């Protein structure tokens, strides 16, 4: 990219109560995201459901684009000042969300300088029929170097299979030993073709696997599909017009 990405991102693993995954993702995209855009300059980067055969279920992945650490600090300050550690104005929203989720695990991640923002991804029409979410552990202090290796050596291998590197991040507030990669894949069959090459012998893919073993400590991948109002699916941020009829903030 010609510009440097100075955003930071909140990445969330969300555990869903029962069969409420569809309710939860709508609540996040249509009911929460418009508020976040207006009051916190926080954009929805993506909301996905984990495909259970490949990972934990029923689980949702949320990612939010913050206006750098300053924007994140302002949002956290506003959110946690009250006695309940929650914005009192959003009490109804929190109560509704609690019906759908049982807990989660968040992390702050920093993009590679060349990684596109969500506005750039939408403008370029980047979208996957399915997405691969990869967490990679690397030796301490090498996360930045690993992301450059991915850009230079992995993307030429994956792109012919219909995989596009939509996001590349390293985890903040830690020891620079964890990376997150997000691949937009053109079809489920395109995912299968790469997995077959990796499992049964594809020269380019196996060269990358060998390189991955050299520069990382561990690696895991699962598949996701994006929510109906996830930005890369609709090519824009969710808006108040996307809400269910009758929903109000207060």
What does this protein structure show overall?
It is a single chain. The protein is of the alpha+beta class and 250 residues long. The chain has 2 domains: 8-114, Alpha-Beta Plaits, CATH 3.30.70; 128-226, Alpha-Beta Plaits (2-Layer Sandwich), CATH 3.30.70.100. It is 37% helix and 28% strand. It is built from 8 helices and 8 strands. An 8-stranded antiparallel beta barrel has the order 1-3-2-8-5-7-6-4, surrounded by 4 helices. Helix 5 runs antiparallel to helix 7 (203-215). The longest helix has 20 residues, at 21-40. It is globular. This is NIPSNAP family containing protein. It comes from Frankia nepalensis.
Strand content: 25-35%
Tell me the overall shape: globular
**CATH class annotation of the largest domain:** Alpha Beta
By DSSP, the count of extended strands is 8
* CATH domain topology of the largest domain: Alpha-Beta Plaits
The strand order across the widest sheet is 1-3-2-8-5-7-6-4
- End-to-end C-alpha gap: 41 Å
Largest sheet composition: 8 strands, antiparallel, barrel
Helix content: 25-40%
Q: How many distinct folded domains? A: 2
- C-alpha Rg, in Å? 18 Å
| Unreliable parts | none
Mean pLDDT: 94
Second-tier CATH architecture of the largest domain: 2-Layer Sandwich
Order of helices and strands: EHEEHHEHEHEEHHEH
**Class from secondary-structure proportions:** alpha+beta
Number of distinct helices: 8
Topology summary:
Blueprint: E1 8-16, H1 21-40, E2 43-50, E3 59-66, H2 68-80, H3 91-98, E4 101-111, H4 118-123, E5 130-137, H5 143-158, E6 163-171, E7 178-185, H6 188-200, H7 203-215, E8 218-226, H8 231-234
Antiparallel strand pairs: 1-3, 1-4, 2-3, 2-8, 4-6, 5-7, 5-8, 6-7
Helix pairs in contact: 5-7
């Amino acid at each position: 990219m010609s510009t440097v990405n100075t955003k930071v991102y909140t990445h969330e693993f969300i555990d869903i109560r029962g069969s409420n995954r569809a309710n939860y993702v709508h609540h996040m995209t249509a009911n929460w995201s418009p508020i976040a855009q207006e009051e916190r300059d926080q954009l929805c980067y993506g909301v996905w459901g984990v495909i259970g055969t490949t990972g934990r279920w029923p689980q949702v992945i949320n990612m939010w684009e913050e206006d750098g650490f300053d924007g994140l600090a302002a949002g956290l300050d506003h959110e946690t000042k009250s006695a309940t550690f929650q914005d009192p104005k959003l009490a109804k929203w929190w109560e509704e969300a609690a019906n759908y989720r049982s807990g989660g695990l968040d992390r702050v991640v920093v993009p590679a300088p060349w990684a596109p923002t969500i506005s750039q991804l939408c403008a370029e029409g980047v979208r996957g029929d399915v997405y691969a979410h990869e967490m990679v552990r690397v030796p301490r202090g090498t996360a930045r170097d690993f992301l450059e290796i991915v850009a230079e050596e992995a993307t030429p291998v994956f792109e012919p299979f219909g995989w596009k590197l939509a996001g590349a991040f390293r985890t903040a507030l830690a020891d620079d030993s964890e990376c997150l990669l997000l691949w937009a894949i053109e079809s489920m069959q395109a995912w299968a073709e790469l997995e077959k090459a990796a499992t049964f012998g594809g020269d380019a893919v196996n060269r990358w696997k060998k390189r991955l073993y050299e520069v990382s400590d561990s690696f895991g991948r699962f598949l996701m599909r994006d929510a109906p109002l996830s930005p890369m699916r609709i090519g824009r941020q969710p808006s108040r017009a996307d809400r269910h009829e009758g929903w109000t903030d207060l």
